[in-house]
């Protein structure tokens, strides 16, 4: 029987999911495949700072830590910032011990700060507000709260764009108009233009995440906003056929079998304020609807009015939390 603290090299993800489910509410449950993909499957998973505690062959606590993506994956957070990607424990004292171990390891490397979540292939953009045990635990450990963010959802079964958008959306496949702006899913021929657009307008995390998804799922995971032949906006969309759910799609268990996910989404600076962002959003939702998606999530945002205009409602709230180490 395994006993004491081990690395994730001996992880039994089926058993870890059982522990996860005991610690988190049903809305935040994941399956073994996702837990493995978003921990040890991540290119920035920190094997040395992550650990599992076992009692008679049963995991009773774990911490999963990730390094900053900089400079290896993309520019962004300071490379001395680490991420507490996930934690679960049966007893608070054990949680303290496990987190203390992780903090010692990263402090010896010169870590400057530890963020809860917000990592590459993240589960959480912050501590779930309806998980007070974890929020209180992190507060006692010295983590400081930052402004709240949230996820939004809606069922797309009866989704219809507002009449004011019909002209902008007329160029969508099946539409009857010949508007200058159009939205369509991308093809292999568009990937180079997408890479250039992301480099120019959204360098860093969005650029990395979107291009990685395109490499895994294919270019049709992106809806593109075009003016003529110029790509001037994008929206990442996901559905139940996807091999590597990211962002809000990690909550697919709570969303149901016909889940959908949208985001990130962005329009070139020169086109903002023209209504094209709303047109891109609406067209992307219609594409998800066409694929049979029902409950659809947009995660890690503060734009409740923008998405609320399309019928989305806040479902999960998070408190981003940061622990200063250096």
SS strand fraction: 25-35%
Strand count: 15
The rounded distance between the terminal residues' Cα atoms is 39 Å
- Please state the average pLDDT score: 93
Number of domains: 2
| Distinct helical segment count | 10
CATH topology of the largest domain: Aminopeptidase
Q: Ranges with pLDDT <50 over ≥5 residues?
A: 171-178
CATH class of the largest domain: Alpha Beta
Sheet with the most strands, sense and barrel status: 8 strands, mixed
Order of helices and strands: EHHEEEHEEHEEHEHHEEHEHEHEE
- The Cα radius of gyration reads 21 Å
Overall 3D geometry? globular
GO molecular function: acyltransferase activity, transferring groups other than amino-acyl groups
Domain N-acetyltransferase: 181-326
Protein name: N-acetyltransferase domain-containing protein
InterPro entries: Acyl_CoA_acyltransferase, GNAT_dom
How would you describe what is shown here?
This is N-acetyltransferase domain-containing protein. The chain is α+β, with helices and mostly antiparallel strands and 326 residues long. Helix 3 links the parallel strand 4 (81-89) and strand 5 (113-116). It contains ten helices and 15 strands. It has two domains: 4-148 and 320-324, Aminopeptidase; 152-301, 3-Layer(aba) Sandwich (Aminopeptidase), CATH 3.40.630.30.
